[in-house]
């Protein structure tokens, strides 16, 4: 196992954790191998078992009622968080992060983590430590499946059509709103508390990179073609301390690919080229066992993670802009935007407007950046927007792009709310849409 890890040798089947296939595995009379998560409650499933039968905030957010239409939007919350090698404690409250929007729960949650284990020699070169991943899964499921107490008695609300929703959204755009403001029209009806149950569609860990996808249990039967692919881009250009974990799936005839990455670190100008190379290698090397076999072959793609792009041309003016919280001026020096504009990386990909503070690097359990301290034990790091979410595909519309405020690590979590339009859909779905004071 260690030799395979060192030389990036693929196993015959890429295995991952999932709740969706347990019933089908037992029906076929095959033994279920236990995973390392939740005390063996999840199946570790080779991808060939999944293919044949489709086995499967912010204050001010408003809630939209359920409605039935021939084609509706699914709501997808995407989050990324570099947790700095710290294992979560039992009392860590994830509800504030997962439900920070105070909105109706989403249909799908895609959560990517970086450094869920310390990136030391033992974890990079030796056997994989699955303990922290199991803790994160347990805490996430607990947070998602905890039913909030309703503040008031529920009353029947009028239904709103998709065309009304999209018309309202277009009005917001014409008035200069953007995906970060999470705005919505005042007075939209609220259906009250929505009770939902979530299950794990798939999760995969590669050293410190961990990607998991949770879906409303009502959608489980419509998910098929779950597959994973891991690309190591760390030490020697192949070990898993850096790289990507990708999950591919099909929902109602539409293919989705979620790519969680941790790219090369460093503040030198040449390090931006290394990050660009990581992206190109991940796009070129990621291969799934069946069509679509590549990342770009999917209908909708969401790329998330600690991309590690920093600020270029650091000067005293940079720190003055930081002191004044002039984020838009600082973003003109953002390497990712500069590299993307030049066409060297993520050409044709989209990212929402950023109106939040840099997400890296903070002092432990503090709201102060490392650059704001004179302590010699802290290596000087210029604040930067390392943690990002990008997307590509005609069926995705971003509604929200903001950051959380947990002090758990030296990074702040970032999340986004998307509306996705599957090709074939006739179902009862609850949408999330709303406004923010930010």
Describe the structure.
By secondary structure, this protein is of the alpha+beta class. It is 20% helix and 25% strand. The protein is built from eleven helices and 17 strands. The radius of gyration is 21 Å and the shape is globular. It starts with a helix and ends with a strand. The C terminus is likely disordered.
What brief labels describe this structure?
20% helix; 11 helices; 438 residues; alpha+beta; 6-stranded mixed β-sheet; disordered C terminus; 5-stranded mixed β-sheet; single chain
TL;DR?
With 438 residues, this protein is of the alpha+beta class. It is built from 11 helices and 17 strands. The longest helix is centred in the middle third of the chain and has 17 residues.
Write the layout of secondary structure elements.
Elements: H1 2-6, E1 15-18, H2 22-27, E2 43-46, H3 48-51, E3 61-63, E4 67-69, E5 74-82, H4 95-98, E6 108-114, H5 121-125, H6 131-144, H7 162-174, E7 198-206, E8 209-216, E9 223-232, E10 243-251, E11 254-262, H8 269-285, E12 300-306, H9 316-323, H10 327-331, H11 335-341, E13 387-392, E14 396-403, E15 414-420, E16 427-429, E17 432-434
Parallel strand pairs: 5-6, 11-12
Antiparallel strand pairs: 1-2, 3-17, 4-16, 5-15, 6-8, 7-8, 9-10, 10-11, 12-13, 14-15
């Amino acid at each position: 196992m260690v030799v395979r890890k060192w030389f990036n040798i693929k196993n015959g089947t890429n295995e991952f954790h999932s709740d969706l296939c347990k019933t089908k595995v037992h029906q076929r009379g095959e033994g279920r191998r236990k995973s390392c998560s939740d005390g063996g409650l999840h199946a570790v499933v080779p991808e060939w078992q999944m293919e044949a039968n489709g086995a499967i905030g912010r204050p001010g957010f408003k809630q939209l009622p359920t409605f039935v239409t021939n084609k509706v939007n699914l709501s997808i919350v995407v989050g990324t968080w570099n947790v700095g090698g710290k294992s979560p404690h039992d009392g860590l409250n994830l509800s504030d992060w997962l439900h920070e929007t105070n909105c109706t729960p989403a249909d799908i949650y895609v959560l990517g983590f970086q450094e869920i284990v310390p990136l030391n020699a033992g974890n990079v070169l030796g056997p994989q430590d699955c303990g922290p991943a199991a803790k994160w899964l347990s805490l996430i499921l607990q947070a998602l499946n905890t039913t909030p107490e309703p503040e008031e008695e529920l009353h029947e609300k009028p239904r709103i059509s998709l065309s009304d929703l999209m018309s309202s959204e277009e009005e917001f755009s014409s008035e200069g709103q953007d995906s970060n403001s999470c705005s919505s029209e005042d007075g939209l009806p609220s259906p009250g508390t929505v009770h939902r149950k979530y299950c794990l569609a798939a999760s995969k860990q590669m050293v410190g990179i961990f990607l998991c996808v949770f879906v409303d249990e009502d959608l489980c039967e419509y998910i098929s073609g779950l597959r994973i692919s891991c690309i190591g881009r760390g030490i020697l250009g192949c070990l898993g301390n850096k790289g990507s974990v990708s999950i591919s799936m099909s929902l109602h005839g539409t293919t989705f690919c979620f790519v969680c990455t941790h790219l090369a670190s460093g503040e030198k100008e040449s390090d931006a080229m290394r990050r660009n190379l990581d992206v190109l290698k991940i796009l070129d090397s990621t291969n799934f066992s069946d069509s679509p076999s590549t990342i770009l072959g999917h209908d909708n793609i969401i790329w998330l993670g600690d991309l590690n792009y920093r600020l270029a041309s650091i000067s005293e003016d940079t720190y003055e802009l930081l002191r004044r919280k002039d984020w838009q001026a600082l973003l003109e020096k953002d390497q990712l935007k500069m590299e993307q504009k030049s066409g060297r990386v993520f050409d044709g990909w989209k990212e929402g407007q950023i109106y939040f503070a840099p997400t890296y690097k903070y002092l432990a359990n503090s709201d102060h950046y490392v650059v704001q301290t004179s302590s010699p034990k802290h290596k000087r790091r210029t604040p930067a927007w390392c943690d990002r979410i990008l997307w590509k595909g005609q069926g995705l519309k971003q509604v929200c792009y903001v950051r959380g405020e947990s002090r758990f690590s030296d990074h702040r979590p970032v999340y986004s709310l998307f509306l996705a339009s599957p090709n074939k859909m006739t179902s009862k779905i609850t949408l999330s849409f709303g406004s923010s004071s930010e």
